[in-house]
């Protein structure tokens, strides 16, 4: 499988994988000796069990999660790596059953160590997009007076310039979550470790997810709802599915769970060798493997209405909650990849075509034996009518010069971003499309000094002064397969003087990928950098909105048409 490229703004840093830069992974565990490593009390388990959590326990766990995470990212002793904050959670968890919960938590925090001197307010050099949600620390109806005052002291103290658990990528700004033990051997019945997973993830999002304000559900309510859910998990599958549901709550296409055998088994180890897309809200066959072609009645453009006796609509409803994404079209994109997965050797499907309904028994293959979603198309070609076509999915950066040298005076140029770019071409390609440097995006970064705050940085430009730029029409094709780096590329190239974006809303996940590791060795991540248009307009979840909306039709698929490409050619020829 071709390695997906991690979207990074600085070209010199753009050499990493979508699922976490290798050097970042190495930084996940600090190689320096820290006092935290001397604490081994709970290496074999948390020794904490909780069943049938009641209302008071849930309320105390809710408070404890917020306090634990707040102190984790704000207290200087934790920042120095002097305290194993995971194990401290296990020590304080029994207090949720105490009538003196608040005083026990207060004494626990006081025992951590001294605070730095009080911070004097500094002038913020950038516009603040998001302020931390920390009003609760001042609420003496939520906390005791003493506990509130102690958290306020922590808030007002000077923060260290480095933190054992969190850092930001230099010159770019997305978070690196460091020194988070994956606990690969955790027991699925261990209540302490399950709560640790919830607490860790919830607070990472609370303080370092640049798009927390776009989450539909109130993030505090998500925490309350998932406390009993994680406690109820009793095996690896139920735990991972619960964490997957939690991850889905942030509505970020970059957020999923990867490389887990138990989930692969749950989705199905086999797949019918047929590619389907959702077109006109129906599961439509768009490609058939050569090994099946001609052996079955099924054809491209046929609609699958039932799979193993279950209606397709019902299967979509069942599977979609395990397909985290920024918007519904992108969830459907991912459901389409799983709809024909099974652990059986065949699938019985009901087909609807132009004339009739019929059933097919389709033999399955191992999932790894077929991959329709990587299309090895040529990086460029000439189309009739003096039009150039570029496919960034296979375009190498070093090709750009030669391609544009031959395309520079063509009537039109079609850039097909219905793919994930093979290489970072934003600036190397953009300089041929712009007569001068042109603003196209600006970004927000998080803060060590004030966790939960996100501020706008400078606005980025694409292009350079160039009288011999491409003066023809530029048509950029997009759809739900356009995501992350592809979306960023579309943002940059659409500012060309005669550019038109054609297609449908993209995946809505823009910003560099930040890896998150959770107990049970769960690997996930987030869009770690806030990406906006120069005027501050959102891109996350919204995606790239086309200038002209056009979606494929079932009729077009049956006729073998690429309707977007045809429309692009028509626009150039107008």
Strand percent estimate: 15-25%
Using only C-alpha atoms, the radius of gyration works out to: 26 Å
- Give the distance, in angstroms, between the N- and C-terminal Cα atoms: 40 Å
Q: What is the 3D shape?
A: globular
Q: What is the number of beta strands?
A: 23
Mean pLDDT over the residues:
91
Number of helices: 17
Oligomer: single chain
Structure, described:
This protein is of the alpha+beta class and 574 residues long. It has 3 domains: 236 residues, no CATH class; 105 residues, PDZ domain (Pdz3 Domain); 194 residues, 2-enoyl-CoA Hydratase, Chain A, domain 1. The protein is built from 17 helices and 23 strands. The protein has a 6-stranded mixed beta sheet with strand order 13-14-15-18-19-23, with helices on one face. A 4-stranded antiparallel beta sheet has the order 1-17-16-22. Strands 8-7-10-11 form a 4-stranded antiparallel beta sheet. Helix 15 links the parallel strand 18 and strand 19. Helix 7 packs antiparallel against helix 8, helix 7 packs parallel to helix 9 and helix 8 runs antiparallel to helix 9.
List the helices and strands and how they pair.
Blueprint: H1 22-27, H2 55-72, H3 76-79, H4 85-92, H5 101-110, E1 128-130, H6 145-156, E2 166-168, E3 175-177, H7 191-208, H8 219-232, H9 236-248, H10 261-267, E4 270-271, E5 274-279, E6 282-288, E7 303-307, E8 310-311, H11 312-319, H12 328-338, E9 341-342, E10 346-352, E11 357-363, E12 365-366, E13 380-383, E14 387-390, H13 400-407, E15 412-416, H14 426-430, E16 438-445, E17 454-462, E18 473-478, H15 485-493, E19 499-503, E20 513-518, E21 522-527, E22 530-532, E23 548-549, H16 554-558, H17 563-573
Parallel strand pairs: 14-15, 15-18, 18-19, 19-23
Antiparallel strand pairs: 1-17, 2-3, 4-9, 4-12, 5-6, 7-8, 7-10, 10-11, 13-14, 16-17, 16-22, 20-21
Helix pairs in contact: 2-7, 2-8, 7-8, 7-9, 8-9
């Amino acid at each position: 499988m071709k390695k997906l490229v991690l979207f990074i703004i600085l070209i010199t840093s753009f050499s990493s994988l979508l699922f976490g830069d290798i050097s970042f992974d190495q930084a996940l565990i600090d190689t320096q000796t820290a006092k935290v490593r001397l604490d081994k009390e709970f290496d074999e388990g948390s020794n904490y069990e909780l069943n049938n959590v009641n209302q008071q326990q849930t309320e105390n766990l809710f408070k404890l999660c917020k306090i634990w995470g707040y102190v984790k990212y704000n207290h200087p002793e934790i920042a120095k790596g002097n305290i194993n904050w995971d194990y401290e959670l296990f020590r304080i968890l029994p207090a949720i059953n105490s009538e003196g919960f608040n005083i026990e938590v207060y004494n626990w925090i006081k025992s951590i160590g001294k605070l730095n001197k009080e911070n004097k307010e500094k002038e913020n050099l950038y516009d603040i997009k998001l302020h931390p949600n920390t009003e609760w620390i001042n609420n003496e109806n939520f906390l005791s007076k003493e506990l509130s005052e102690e958290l306020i002291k922590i808030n007002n103290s000077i923060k260290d310039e480095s933190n054992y658990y969190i850092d930001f990528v230099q010159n770019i700004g997305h978070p690196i979550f460091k020194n988070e033990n994956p606990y690969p051997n955790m027991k699925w019945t261990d209540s302490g470790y399950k709560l640790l997973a919830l607490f860790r993830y919830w607070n990472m999002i609370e303080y370092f997810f640049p798009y927390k304000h776009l989450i539909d559900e109130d993030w505090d309510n998500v925490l309350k709802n998932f406390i009993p859910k994680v406690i109820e998990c009793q095996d690896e599958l139920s735990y991972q599915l619960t964490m997957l549901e939690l991850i889905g709550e942030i509505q970020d296409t970059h957020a999923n769970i990867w490389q887990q055998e138990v989930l692969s088994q749950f989705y199905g180890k086999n797949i019918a060798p047929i590619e389907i897309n959702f077109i006109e809200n129906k599961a439509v066959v768009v490609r058939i493997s050569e090994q099946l072609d001609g052996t079955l009645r099924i054809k491209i453009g046929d609609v699958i209405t039932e799979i193993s006796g279950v209606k397709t609509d019902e299967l979509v409803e069942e599977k979609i909650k395990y397909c985290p994404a920024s918007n519904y079209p992108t969830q459907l994109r991912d459901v389409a990849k799983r709809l024909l997965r099974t652990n059986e050797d065949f699938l019985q499907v009901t087909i609807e075509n132009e004339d009739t309904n019929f059933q097919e028994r389709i033999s399955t293959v191992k999932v790894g034996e077929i991959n329709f979603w990587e299309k090895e198309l040529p990086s460029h070609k000439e189309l009739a009518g003096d039009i150039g076509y570029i496919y960034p999915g296979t375009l190498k950066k070093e090709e750009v010069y030669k391609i544009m040298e031959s395309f520079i005076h063509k009537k039109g140029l079609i850039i097909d971003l219905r793919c994930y770019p093979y290489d970072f071409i934003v600036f190397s390609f953009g300089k041929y499309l712009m007569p001068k440097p042109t603003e196209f995006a600006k970004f927000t970064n998080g803060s060590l000094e004030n966790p939960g705050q996100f501020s706008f940085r400078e606005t980025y430009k694409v292009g350079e002064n160039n009288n011999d730029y491409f003066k023809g029409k530029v048509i950029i094709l997009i759809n739900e397969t356009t995501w992350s780096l592809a979306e960023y590329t579309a943002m940059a190239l659409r500012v060309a003087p005669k550019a038109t974006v054609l297609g449908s809303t993209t995946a809505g996940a823009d910003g560099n990928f930040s890896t998150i590791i959770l107990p049970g060795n769960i690997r996930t991540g987030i869009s770690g950098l806030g990406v906006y248009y120069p005027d501050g307009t959102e891109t996350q979840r919204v995606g790239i909105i086309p200038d002209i909306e056009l979606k494929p039709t079932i009729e077009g698929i049956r006729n073998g048409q690429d309707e977007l490409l045809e429309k692009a050619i028509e626009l150039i020829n107008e």
